[in-house]
Write a structure and sequence with these properties.
Blueprint: E1 14-17, E2 24-28, E3 41-44, H1 45-48, E4 56-61, E5 67-73
Antiparallel strand pairs: 1-2, 2-5, 3-4, 4-5
Amino acid sequence: MGQMDSKKKLGRFELRVSKDDQDVAYLRLPSHPGETCKMSKSLRLTELMGSYTGPDVVLDFDQDGVLVGIEILA
């Protein structure tokens, strides 16, 4: 495992399933800074892999371009 920037607050993996819609989940990665995180960019998996046909997956990046979360819409 590579070293991470010591300025980043390291957490743990956390999976949250929407209370309103059981088909929506969000995986917070250890690099996620918490509730105050401002996403700089969100990228759908279909934008990377045009032939992808699975659930809608959105990759969230912070202002430094670090992947901090993954949203899954089944």
